[in-house]
Amino acid sequence: MVEPTKVKGPASYFPSIEKTYEKPIAHWMDILQSSSSRKHMELVGKLKTEHGMGHGHANALVAAFLAKA
Question: What is the DSSP letter of 23?
Fold first, then answer.
């Protein structure tokens, strides 16, 4: 029997982020995309201060976002 592939890295936080903040990951990616900054900690700060997100969740979203940029 083959075990399902376990999601690793920043994406492993996505189910928890969607459950906690009741928004899809695409919503958060759109917010990051609309930001004028592409600096990691500035984007993390935006999610924390403007959207009340915890540091770990914000960091995971930003890391995933910047990896695709």
Answer: S
